[in-house]
Specification:
The structure holds two protein chains of two kinds. Chain A is an alpha/beta fold. Chain A folds into three domains: 3-244, 4-Layer Sandwich (Glutamine Phosphoribosylpyrophosphate, subunit 1, domain 1), CATH 3.60.20.10; 248-440, 3-Layer(aba) Sandwich (Rossmann fold); 442-600, 3-Layer(aba) Sandwich (Rossmann fold). Chain A has an eight-stranded antiparallel beta sheet, with helices on one face. In chain A, helix 8 packs parallel to helix 13 (394-413), helix 9 (294-310) packs antiparallel against helix 16 and helix 15 (443-453) packs across helix 19. Chain A is globular, with a radius of gyration of 27 Å. Chain A starts with a strand and ends in an 18-residue tail after the last helix. In chain B, the strands form nine sheets. Chain B has a nine-stranded parallel beta sheet, with no helix packed on it. Chain B has a seven-stranded mixed beta sheet with strand order 5-4-1-6-11-8-12, with helices on both faces. In chain B, helix 1 (33-43) crosses helix 4 (111-118), helix 3 (85-91) crosses helix 5 and helix 3 (85-91) packs across helix 6 (188-195). Chain B is 16% helix and 35% strand. By secondary structure, chain B is α/β, with parallel strands linked by helices. Chain B has two domains: 2-214, Spore Coat Polysaccharide Biosynthesis Protein SpsA, Chain A, CATH 3.90.550.10; 227-395, UDP N-Acetylglucosamine Acyltransferase, domain 1, CATH 2.160.10.10. Classes of the chains: A alpha/beta, B alpha/beta. Chain A binds chain B through residues 177, 192-194, 205, 207, 231, 234, 236, 238, 242-248, 254, 257-258, 261, 264, 267-269, 272, 427, 430-431, 433-434, 437-438, 440-441, 443, 557, and chain B through 19-20, 45, 47-48, 53, 56-58, 60-62, 64-69, 71, 73-76, 237, 252-253, 255, 270-271, 273, 288-289, 291, 305-306, 308, 322-323, 325, 357-358, 376.
């Protein structure tokens, strides 16, 4: 996904483009750029691009004058997220600029043809061929040139083009979103209406195959044959925020419900290959060290249990900011760095340190081409899509999925995992989205239990083995959005201290699935009940013993113990969400917390 | 003009396929039914939509979000209790003014049917069709180009012209709905009947496609019809000695293993693993992340995402919900059968079985034609299922 805007009007284009672009940041934020036609228009094109978020562009770009321009925010698909690959892209003369959302499927052959006819390319993108195609067809009439260029490209696109010497923007669309906004003495084009709602509420929708010309006074739409098309403007009455949340009251809830799909996407194409990833081939590691912060650290703790079980390799987990203080060990572990944004300063620092120590490194990140991906030897991307709610949900679950894949890879390499065992693991992973869906189907039960305990000031979370980190993560979710003081403990540690904190006003959430820890967990639950604390247990469906021990029970479908963290954390995400909602907290923007921490 | 799509109901007669999602989200040719409705509206330049949601609303909202991906602008209103479609329309009252179109979200309609209604030039109007089986629907009588009466599911034969549930209406309908609700009638056809005295409703006939899915076997017909128009796209990895004949669509990262033969129209989603040596016959849709093991034969069936079917199985005229898992030798053949739905028996000319989501089968299970197996059942090896099973049944 990428975001596109264009402006043709009487005001200075630069600040308006930037403002609209920020509304599209959810569509991608690994690089951004802007091009403004000079004022007077004969002066040529002013173009500036930068890697990173739109804020980076904003703080580094020079002032531009002109009233016609385009801008773009990128989420890399073809070509790495570098300044060169950022949009807009130019032709050989630097008089044309193109922004694009979509994929040109035949770009290799078109590019070869263009290279053969003397065009020079500066980026790895598919988009750049379009700039050169328009250049080749340019004969003074920008609309005609764009239409001719479109005949040569296949794939999906929303293109917006400006050219020095033209006070006109030309746009075209096939299967990628594009809308026209109508103002007074100014007109807009964008990937979606939310980008423009601040400036206008009148819109024209562009259909597949159409080409549009915009100037400050006029919008003309042509079909693929070049015949003018009449279109009635439509008026929009909804607010910005609501639009982006697509019916959900909060981004966090929307993202919780996106998890079955996110798991599916993260697994796609990663399980069938018979050949191991080249990085792992011939690399046998005697130990693994996982380094991460916050929620990613909790994913790492789950990863420890997964890797130790599947690959039988001793694994330690460390907080990123602490890693540098750990002494260099005699052996050389595989260092796994987990960061959603790929920009977390502490984790980036740890990656550099690991490399300095001569260790092999693997990064697990959600943002393609982010900083971490250049600091490590091998990257596993989680394909969770942009996450806007500050409380991590779908990125945590997909990090855990990435760790299953990593552990399987290590296990097959060091022969701890047979091909057959791996096959049954992958077959199970395929059905993992179903177990998440089952929890989502039970949201109203979770909400009803949350209603009973939302007035608590303290809440404790206990679990053992692979679900101990899930207790920590459940506590983190609860404290960060509901402001209830939440603490997670290994259940066995209660008697070594925390029991002193328990009272009838401090509910305890106990993860008690039927695995090798089950009997011990029942013991812990009794221990807690004896202190008068209410117990909310999470267990398997059909467990008739659990209700005898706990005050409330949340059931998940039975599944192999190693996979239980995924449905259990989804239940706890819903738990934290409903606690926060009942308490009236600002769920998507909890106080004092930022989504990506780029300072150490 | 704004469109209102009624998508709040569960679709009880399609149970157990509605455990995780409402009827409107059941996939037909790998797309939810509601997507066909949205698509037909967008193709007629109606992009402003209000979707009335209720049962499992998140599945709808997560798929359509704000409609951008589909070229539409969708806002949602919630009907908390699903009492009837007139009551559902009332939930959208605040978002509507002047004239608007109303569509049921659970009928597949094509661009033409919607276009005929929009361009009839009269409002209020109702899209009507002739039906062989009018007693299931709201039947209308006509006089001089206007609807004179509406009879909901009449026992006797009144006429063969039925309401499709698609209307062009104006704000005055809300008064009629209020009146009907006061008398305990929550249906939209009741309100239309009540409004006839005040404003005539024009019947609009259309040659366009309109298919209502009421019972599980209707899905097979719907699926077959939708597959006729599926654009074919072949991605994924196709091993050697695979035969693809006719229109066959294969999704990203799907592997079709050696010796597999597929006769289109067949649609297969993303991330599947099919074969080696599997045979798939026409009018079959397979969702995402589905595994089908060697020597299995599938005919005229719908397999939703995350299913996994063991070797040497035979599936014909069957619908498998999400995440159905079977070890080898599952037998779900099709034949003429009587199907029991809510204690009513229906004679269906050719039906296999309907298997609810997340049900798992051991090896060598056979399911009699016309049997409905609930969701989340566990069936042990060697079992023979001869009658319907409720959700979460254990068969040992």
């Amino acid at each position: 996904m990428c975001g596109i805007v264009g402006y043709a009007g009487g005001r200075n284009a630069q600040p308006i483009l930037l403002d609209c672009l920020k509304r599209l940041e959810y569509r991608g934020y690994d690089s951004a750029g802007i091009a403004v036609v000079g004022d007077p228009i004969q002066k040529g094109l002013q173009l500036f691009k930068s890697k990173g978020e739109i804020a980076v562009l904003e703080s580094s770009m020079p002032e531009m004058t002109g009233t016609v321009g385009i801008a773009h925010t990128r989420w890399a698909t073809q070509g790495r997220p570098t300044t060169e690959n950022a949009h807009p892209l130019s032709d050989c003369t630097n008089r044309l600029a193109v922004v694009h959302n979509g994929i040109i499927s035949n770009f290799m052959e078109v590019k070869e043809h263009l290279l053969a006819t003397g065009h020079k390319f500066v980026s790895e993108t598919d988009t750049e061929v379009f700039a050169h195609l328009v250049e080749a067809e340019m004969n003074g009439d920008l609309v005609a040139a764009v239409r001719k260029a479109l005949e040569k490209v296949e794939g999906t696109y929303a293109f917006v083009v400006v050219s020095a010497g033209h006070d006109e923007i030309v746009a075209a669309r096939r299967e990628s979103p594009l809308v026209i906004g109508l103002g007074d003495g100014e007109n807009f084009v964008a990937s979606d209406v939310t980008a423009l709602l601040k400036y206008t509420s009148r819109f024209l929708h562009v259909q597949d195959g159409e080409v549009v010309s915009l100037t400050r006074d006029e919008v003309r739409i042509f079909d693929s044959e070049g015949t003018a098309v009449e279109r009635r403007p439509e008026k929009i009455t909804w607010s910005l925020e609501d639009a982006e949340k697509g019916g959900y009251p909060h981004f966090m809830l929307k993202e919780i419900y996106e998890q079955p799909e996110a798991i599916h996407d993260s697994l796609l194409g990663r399980m069938e290959s018979a050949e191991p990833e080249p990085f792992f081939q011939g690399n046998s590691f005697s130990s693994v060290k996982i380094v991460a912060c916050g929620t990613s650290y909790h994913a790492g703790l789950v990863g420890k249990y997964i890797i130790e079980e599947l690959a039988k390799v001793p694994t330690t987990v460390q907080i990123s900011s602490e890693y540098r203080y750990s002494p260099v060990s005699r052996e050389s572990p595989l260092v796994v760095l987990i960061t959603q944004s790929g920009e977390t300063a502490d984790t980036l620092g740890a990656a550099r340190e690991a490399r300095k120590r001569g260790n092999k490194t693997v990064g697990i990140a959600n943002v393609v081409g982010s900083a971490i991906t250049r600091e490590v030897d091998h990257v596993i991307y989680t394909r969770a899509g942009p996450e806007i709610g500050v409380a991590a949900t779908k990125t945590f679950v997909t990090q855990v999925v990435a760790l299953y894949l990593l552990a399987m890879e290590l296990g097959v390499q060091n022969r701890s995992l047979t091909a057959q065992a791996r096959r049954s693991m992958t077959s199970f992973l395929r059905s993992l989205p179903r177990y998440v869906q089952d929890v989502l189907n039970k949201a109203s039960e979770i909400e009803a239990i949350a209603e009973k305990y939302a007035r608590s000031d303290d809440m404790f979370f206990i679990g053992r083995s692979i679900n101990y980190p899930i207790a920590l993560e459940g506590a983190l979710k609860t404290k960060e959005i509901s402001y209830i003081h939440g603490e997670g403990f290994p259940a066995g540690e209660l008697k070594h201290g925390p029991l002193a904190l328990l009272s009838k006003d401090s509910p305890v959430v106990a993860i008690a699935v039927r695995d090798h820890t089950y009997e011990k967990m029942l013991g812990n639950i009794s221990e807690v009940s004896a202190r008068g604390s209410p117990v909310i247990a999470i267990g398997f469906e059909g467990d008739t013993d659990l209700p005898k021990f706990a005050d409330d029970v949340l059931s998940i479908r039975q599944l192999p113990p190693i996979f239980t963290p995924v449905p259990v954390i989804v239940a706890l995400q819903l738990w934290a969400y409903h606690l926060a909602r009942i308490r009236g907290c600002p769920i998507d923007k909890p106080r004092n917390i930022a989504k990506t921490v780029t300072v150490e | 003009m704004k469109a209102v799509i009624l998508a709040a109901g569960e679709g009880m007669r399609l149970r157990p396929l509605t455990v995780s999602e409402p009827k409107v989200m059941i996939p037909v040719a790998n797309r939810p039914i509601l997507e066909y409705v949205v698509d037909s509206l967008v193709k007629n330049d109606v992009t402003d939509m209000v979707v009335v949601v209720g049962y499992r609303k998140e599945r709808i909202m997560s798929h359509f979000e704000d409609g951008k991906k589909f070229g539409a602008r969708i806002e949602y209103v919630v009907q908390e209790k699903q009492l009837g479609n007139g009551h559902a329309l009332l939930a959208a009252k605040d978002r509507l003014s002047g004239e608007f179109v109303v569509l049921p979200g659970d009928n597949v309609v094509d661009r033409r049917a919607v276009g005929d209604l929009l361009r009839s030039g009269t409002c209020p109007s109702a899209l009507v069709v002739e039906s062989d089986n009018p007693s299931k629907y709201g039947v209308v009588t006509l006089e001089r180009g206007a609807i004179t009466s509406v009879h909901e599911k009449p026992a006797e034969m009144i006429s063969n012209i039925i309401l499709t549930g698609m209307y062009c209406l104006n704000e005055r309908i809300f008064q009629a709905i209020d009146g009907c609700i006061a008398e305990g009638e929550y249906g939209l056809s009741n309100a239309v009947q009540a409004s006839l005295g005040e404003q005539p409703v024009a019947p609009v006939f259309s040659d366009g496609l309109w298919i209502d899915a009421v019972y599980p076997w209707d899905l097979l017909e719907l699926n077959a019809a939708a597959l006729e128009n599926v654009p074919v796209r072949t991605a994924g990895k196709i091993e050697s000695q695979v035969v693809l004949s006719g229109p066959v669509g294969i999704g990203e990262e799907t592997i079709i293993r050696a010796g597999t033969t597929i006769y289109g129209p067949v649609l297969i989603g993303d991330g599947c693993e099919i074969g080696p040596n599997v045979t798939i016959f026409p009018s079959t849709s397979i969702g995402n992340s589905v595994t089908v093991e060697p020597y299995t034969v599938i005919k005229n069936s719908v397999l939703m995402s995350n299913c996994s079917i063991g070797a040497h199985s035979y599936l014909s005229h069957s619908v498998l919900g999400y995440g159905v898992k079977s070890q080898s030798h599952l037998m779900a053949a099709g034949a003429e059968a009587y199907v029991n739905i809510a204690d009513e028996f229906f004679k269906v000319p050719h039906i296999g079985s309907i298997l609810g989501e997340d049900t798992s089968f051991g090896t060598g299970v056979s399911v009699e034609p016309g049997t409905i197996v609930g969701a989340g059942c566990k069936v042990s090896s060697g079992a023979r299922i001869t009658r319907n099973l409720p959700n979460k049944a254990l068969v040992t």
